Amino acid sequence: MERRSFIRRISIALASIAGIFLGASFLKQFAHRHGEQGKRIRVGRLSDFPVDTYTYINDHKIFVYRDHEGIRSVSAVCTHLGCIIQRTDEGFECPCHGSCYSEEGKVVSGPAPTALAWYKMERTPDGKFIVDLDKKTGADEKLYFA
Amino acid sequence: MPGTDNISNSPEKIYRKRVRKITRNFFLHIHSPRIYPFSMKPGYTFGLGIVLGFLFLIMIFTGVLLMLHYTPSVESAYNSVKDIVHVVPGGRIIRNIHRLASHAMVITVFLHLLRVFYTGSYLGGRYVNWIIGVAMFVVVLFMSFSGYLLPWDQLSYWAVTIGSNIAASARELTDLLGITGILDIGGFFQRLLIGSETVGQTALTRFFMLHVIFLPLTLLVLTAVHLWRIRKEGGLSRPVAISSRETDKLLAWPMLMWVELSIFLSVIALLVLFSFFIEAPLLEPANPSHPENPAKSPWYFLGIQELVSYSAFAGGLLVPVLFLYFLVSIPYKDKEEQYIGVWFSGRRGIKVLLYAILLSVFTVCVQVFVMVRWGWLRNWFPDISQWFVMLVNPATITVMIFAAYSVYIRRKSGSSRMAAISLFTSSMVALIIFTAIGIWFRGANWEFVFR
Known about the structure:
The structure holds 2 protein chains of 2 kinds.
Chain A: H1 3-28, H2 34-37, E1 40-45, E2 53-57, E3 62-66, E4 70-75, E5 86-87, E6 91-93, E7 100-102, E8 107-109, E9 118-123, E10 128-137, E11 143-144
Antiparallel strand pairs in A: 1-10, 2-3, 3-4, 4-9, 4-11, 5-6, 6-7, 7-8, 9-10
Chain B: H1 11-23, E1 34-35, H2 42-45, H3 48-67, H4 77-86, H5 91-118, H6 127-148, H7 154-167, H8 171-177, H9 185-194, H10 201-232, E2 250-251, H11 255-275, H12 302-308, H13 312-333, H14 347-374, H15 377-380, H16 386-391, H17 394-413, H18 416-440
Antiparallel strand pairs in B: 1-2
Helix pairs in contact in B: 3-5, 3-11, 4-5, 5-6, 5-11, 6-10, 6-13, 7-9, 12-13, 12-18, 13-18, 14-17, 14-18, 17-18
């Protein structure tokens, strides 16, 4: 093989390898990062949540709702474009584009494509509540006190 | 003294001297030493290109002054802007001028785009410069948008949150297809823009770098290529009938220089004047857990935000991409060079333009009225598939009506230029109406308000 031809082939091979690595790392960016969102978070004790009230947890953008029977949590992030929804008499409403959700988090009107996510809750032996952002539940499921 | 010397007073000597004034000056030689009288007609160009150039220079100058006092960190950004306004001598006026100039740039670049289109200045082999101009239009929008976050107040935080979420609007489609877990295109664009799912320090750093380095440099390079191509293509566009004889040209020195200087001084005078009366807003510091209500993006993106309120994917991605594709494709579809340099391509063009305006006003207003009065698909059929909500809404219906009408005009008139005028006009009028709705007729919770 001639020297020029050899150098050309080596150059093409090295450039191809670099291209594959660059391309793969670029495409990897498209993949959804599952691990980022999913985690278990401590939200507080029973006394932190007044009865029949949706308490907003600022750090994790969720509402925790407590009634006389149990406790449950719902995402406070609008499924349309990620604004923080607000509590209304009928359910929830997004201030950004007016998507309305029912008490169960179902889309009633507006551009939101999907219902709000409800998360599974647990209680630790020391009495603190944990919201598992990895595990979604139905709107009617709650963590019963008894 | 050159004026008293008989030899230097000879017409040929004066001519050469004036040509050299332009050609031997690093900054001035972007001009042609001799220009067509037609290019100087104020009613043809309105000086919009040169106004844009001067506004860009003012932006750079005031931007550098602001940078001396600004700290791009979540903890300090707000206070540093507050210091600029209340402590730094002249800081308030410099900030006001910077903001006014950025808004003026957005308006002027839009008007310049209209001027170039309606005078058919993309014709006659000028298609590359048209595409460069469209790219500059997008860069100017993003340059202004990237500066919006820097004060880190409630207004900027929520405006950019809305804007960055629009970047993720492809998720509506990937969610419907059930492939977001494998191919999260919306998330990719959002992370590319703000570095994570929410606006934070990474977003501020990125926006700062985009605003002060990447976008101004890009605009500078594009401006250089834009001006170079104008020179390569024989100066500003002009009608075919206009003489292109070299002897009919005017010397750029001193007449053009006087015109440019007067435009420059007028621009500065207006900006300084308005900066005393129009304050750049600075609300309370950003609070990520309490959105402004209504949370609105910058005014020039409110048309898109209005469309996004119908469907994230259709309004945030599909329609803007189709619009940009249309803009870029205009010179490839329309090659009727006889219309170059003629406002609205004559009487026939004006007629098409007026019908397109009527169609656009009617189409948009009727749909918005229906939506405000009776709601849309989700209100009528609560369990309707999201596919219908995404694909059948005022944004997509408007596009389809305009495209169909433009095809009709193409067939009826047999002219690609008339079809282009129809589609361009109806799109621009719709954009203006949607933007006006977003600015003045959307209140708390994005409810329609009419006061």
